[in-house]
Design brief:
Blueprint: H1 3-20, H2 23-27, E1 37-39, E2 44-46, H3 48-63, E3 64-80, E4 83-96, E5 102-103, E6 106-116, E7 119-128
Parallel strand pairs: 1-7
Antiparallel strand pairs: 1-2, 3-4, 4-5, 4-6, 6-7
Length: 129
């Protein structure tokens, strides 16, 4: 399997972890280096613990009963043999936890992945609307 395919699989595991809201699966996607960052449409989360606890659990899980993250047109660019830049279109189809109403957003997402111990991991994610 080539490196671009491996990075694309990381994106698909990210999508699945968002949809299932699986805390451990989501945490396992991130590299061990300090400085991991996720920038949502409205906030910045620094460090894996904050990304998992505040973005996934405190944000997505607290707000939505269900969330389907749909990714389209995934473009993987290998910057070096150990760094990849990924850009794709996304949209979400959610059910709000409190009101049970449907909700969704769409935009572009950029991810930076690094190869750590032979495996591709996330170092940075940035959503834009």
């Amino acid at each position: 399997m080539d490196e671009k395919t491996k990075v694309t699989e990381l994106v698909l595991r990210y999508k699945e972890a968002i949809c299932t809201q699986d805390k451990e699966a989501f945490r396992a996607l991130w590299c061990e280096q300090e400085g991991n960052t996720l920038i949502s449409v409205t906030k910045r989360f620094e460090g894996t613990d904050r990304i998992v606890d505040d973005f996934l659990i405190g944000g997505i899980h607290a707000s939505y009963e269900t969330i389907d993250l749909i990714v389209d047109d995934v473009d993987v660019r290998l910057s070096t043999e150990d760094v990849a830049i990924v850009v794709f279109a996304y949209c979400t189809q959610c059910i709000r936890r409190e009101t049970k109403e449907p909700y969704g957003i769409q935009g572009l997402e950029t991810q930076v992945a690094i190869k750590e111990n032979g495996e591709w991991k996330l170092a940075h994610v940035h959503y834009s609307k």
